[in-house]
From TrEMBL:
Residues 261-454 form the Carbohydrate kinase FGGY C-terminal domain. InterPro entries: ATPase_NBD (IPR043129), Carb_kinase_FGGY (IPR000577), Carb_kinase_FGGY_CS (IPR018483), FGGY_C (IPR018485), FGGY_Carb_Kinase (IPR050406), FGGY_N (IPR018484). Signal peptide: none annotated. The keyword Phosphoprotein does not apply. Keywords: Kinase, Transferase. Residues 4-249 form the Carbohydrate kinase FGGY N-terminal domain. Pfam families: FGGY_C, FGGY_N. This is Xylulokinase. Belongs to the FGGY kinase family. It comes from the Bacteria.
Amino acid sequence: MDTVIGIDIGTQSTKAMVIDRHGRILAQHSHGYRVDTARPLWAEQWPNVWWDAVLICIRACLATPGIDRRGVKGLCVSSLYGGSGIPVDADIRPVHPCLIWMDRRAEAQVQWVKEHLDLSRLEAVTGNGVDSYYGFTKMMWLKAERPEVWSRTRYLLPPNSYINYHLSGEIAIDHSSAGNIGGIYDLAARDWSAEMIDALDLDRDKLPTRLVESGATVGGLLPALADSLDLCDGIPVVAGGVDAAMATLAAGATRPGNHVAMIGTSMCWGVINQRLDAGQGLISMPHVLNGDRDLYTFGGALTAGASVSWFVDTFCGEDKAAAGDGSSVFERLESLARELPPGADGLLFLPYLMGERSPVWDAHASAGFIGLSLYHRRHHLYRAVLEGVTFALRHNMEAGVRQGVTLDPRLIVVGGATQSDLWMQIISDVTRMPVYTYREDVEAALGAGLLAGQAIGLFDLDQPLQHGTLIERAKPSDEAARRYEELFALYCQLYPTLKPVMHRLNTISSAVTD
């Protein structure tokens, strides 16, 4: 039986899975690791951690009873947004850790860009704005702050490109990863922008010349590696792409208007579209499917499920410890919070626990409960947290609509948040859309497997995908939706109103720390 392997390199773990021609998962394995955070706002990882995890996961999958190693016909790698990319020398050996998506050290470079570049021109060319999230500002930081590293760097490779090199011996960057760097990629031309590279004083020769579609074959599996894994040598290694777009593909997003919310530790809402507009504060890149035509436009909250975990750890820590895995704590909170009206009896929560990405783009934004009184109890705050993250979701969705995108009338949600029936209902009421989830695991590794399957003719992704079971989880309540309209309007006023206070508090805190 012909199969393919999909691999996803995540921020905290790597997962691999073997899937058949029906998209069924026959084997899967994950391996965890940590992010290095040597200083506040820093987040980096050495790529050998990823490569070791990839091999561990592939071997574990192939060791699963019933898996025919010789039946594996292709591989594809999805990966976290690698920010700066991995600086490698001429022998493709890393000379510095990768500054990943959550690293925010390049704030000085952001300020320089704002002062020296025509931002409207940057947005027009790249389809993206400027923030320390983007890889081009992290590249600028490396050049300015680590000149010895910069001088030794031959290429800056996204994580999946680096892994693909180890699998195939070939250097290439897929268009989704290149576009997500922002700043230096011409989104309309689907190529590097010489104009912006020069304006930012970056080096064109550190960017590989070979740009490929996410579904293209980069090369064949190296014979020595194939022998080590007991796979057929030369099987296609497919380029892959950014994990958010891959997970959206896995959830069935293949046509303009399809949109998916992924709510785990962070939240990412993405829509397939064909319009270029950076003015609404969203991020755009070529999609991993039909990337020559379609864009993947997304926005996200840095702390979604992380806000829920923070609340439970902080306010329910003893109960969680007594329960072991914390399940009874969540069950009790859910039961009590379900009985509350929309708005948790007068509470709003801003979920900016680590600053915020789109559409506000503010590393110094901070979180807060507004409306808190002696009357409120833990289940009030819990519901307010769920509602606050959902308001952040709608904030991004409305930015997409302002961009001119016509959204499908249903919202697909994937990720850990789908375990909460209450949260699914809140999302439906706030967005005024029916909410659907998958019975099966739908994640980036599956999207990578689907691209590998298309590359070898196992799937036709231009046809409606039938690899999962969609379940309607919630329908909007007219009464609740009307109430949430009022609350969302207030939510949107909070950040601009509180921004000066947030920034002043950050300044005071930084002065004390220094």
